[in-house]
Amino acid sequence: VQLQASGGGLVQPGGSLRLSCAASGFALSSYWMYWVRQAPGKEREFVAGINSSGGVIRYVESVKGRFTISRDNAKNTVYLQMNSVKSEDTAVYYCAATRSSVWRGIADYWGQGTRVTVSS
Predict the structure, then answer these.
(1) What three-state secondary structure class fits 75?
(2) pLDDT digits (tens, 9 = 90+) for 21-34
(3) Residue 42 pLDDT > 90
(4) CB-CB neighbours of 104 under 10 Å
(5) Residues 36, 78: Cα–Cα separation, whole Å
(6) Range list of β-strands (E), the chain
(7) Which residues are 53's β-sheet partners?
(8) pLDDT score, position 1
């Protein structure tokens, strides 16, 4: 049972990146899925969340209009499309699965994290 996050890397400011989080051993369709991030020297913060059907989506204010969370339950995968990235988006990004509709920092399953570096 695990979540496997991927897609991180080095991207220039203003560029785009797509993160993926694939589940194995359990069905994502029963869970709220979240992306959270931890920048160097900072606490982990909520980035985006999506409910089991994809009909309810939430974002932290700083990424609204730039990031898009989505899910494909048939592929057991959740995505984070990151557009117009900024240097302050540099962080390790984690996916997490929980049955809670409110992000409280606790998850049933965590991905291992994928590093995103925004730099010219």
Answers:
(1) coil
(2) 999 999 999 999 99
(3) yes
(4) 8
(5) 13
(6) 2-6, 9-11, 17-24, 32-38, 45-50, 57-59, 67-72, 77-82, 91-98, 109-110, 114-118
(7) none
(8) 85
Encoded tokens for 24: 């194995």
> Which amino acid type is present at position 51?
N
Each as own residue / partner, the long-range contacts of residues 104-111 (CB below 8 Å, 24 or more positions apart, any chain) are 105/44, 107/34, 108/31, 109/1, 109/2, 109/3, 109/23, 109/26, 109/31, 110/3, 111/2, 111/3, 111/4, 111/5, 111/21
Whether residue 83 contacts residue 118, with contact meaning beta carbons closer than 8 Å, is answered with no
pLDDT digits (tens, 9 = 90+) for 84-105: 999 999 999 999 999 999 999 9
Average pLDDT score over residue span 70-88: 97
